[in-house]
Amino acid sequence: MPTADIHTHIISPDTERYPIAPMGGNRSSWSVERPVDLDGLLRNLDEAAVEKAVVVQASTAYGFDNSYAADSIAGHEDRLIGVCSVDFLAGDALDRIAYWTQERGFAGVRIRAADGTTPVGRSTRLDDPRLEPVWSHLEAERIPVCVQMHSHHAPTLLSVLGSFPDLVIALDHGARPRLDGGPPYAAAEELFGLAAYKGVFLKITPVTVQRADKEPGGDGGSLVRRLVDGFGSERVAWGSNFPASKGALADLRGVVEGAIGGLTEEERSDILGRTAARIYPRLAV
């Protein structure tokens, strides 16, 4: 089983062909300060000994125009798959999803229920009734959905899963779990109701680990242990968040590997590659 990084981004230097148009009008600082194009990503994957990767649309640079990611993945299907951003509230949302997934080859879609480090002003309530046709389509077609949210949004996502229990959901940055009280991170338990749904997965990224490490008495390894105990390693996968997180991809892989060092070999194998293929079967090919 190859090692797979399920959370990377790319930015083109060609702003005429791929104009910058960030969601909400606020461009992410990382996309200005340390943009990495397709060649840079491939080089970093090689240096980090990562065989396969998921390119997640950089919506804080390109909004819902997934053209650069789509053009970059084409010709590298043996190594790269993509996750596109689509406005789930658009009147033609189903047509847009069909275009990007069927015609342009994306393996998944992404929705923001909360901001990350860059305010976009376009967060969407996951239980908005207008999204029901979209959730129904994604469930029926088994199209994985990356969700940018915080752990306190878990009850809202639970209400969606109550109606669409077979959705495949990958929670960006482990859903940014609450760190109150430090290890053993009892506050993170608000996420664990989601574990009842077998299609819910967690992404462990440097963001997840470093948030815990920076807290007084915090420990990224203990947080990861808590999340693995709650979901099982078969539903936890790693992502570098490169280049949004600072550092070479190899160093970012090292951050995550350091946090999973106390896990069993079986658990580490799940997180570094096997779980990625459970979310995105094309990564197993």
DSSP, total strands = 8
The helix content is 25-40%
The computed structural class is alpha/beta
**Spans where pLDDT lies below 50 across 5 or more residues:** none
Counted by DSSP, the helix tally is 11
Q: Please compute the radius of gyration using only Cα atoms.
A: 17 Å
Write the SSE topology:
Blueprint: E1 4-8, H1 29-33, H2 38-47, E2 52-56, H3 59-62, H4 67-73, E3 80-85, H5 93-103, E4 108-112, H6 132-141, E5 145-148, H7 154-163, E6 169-171, E7 200-204, H8 206-214, H9 220-231, E8 236-238, H10 249-259, H11 265-279
Parallel strand pairs: 1-2, 2-3, 3-4, 4-5, 5-6, 6-7, 7-8
Structural overview:
The chain has 285 residues and is α/β, with parallel strands linked by helices. It has one domain (4-284): Metal-dependent hydrolases (TIM Barrel), CATH 3.20.20. It has eleven helices and eight strands. Strands 1-2-3-4-5-6-7-8 form an eight-stranded parallel sheet. 47% of the residues are buried.
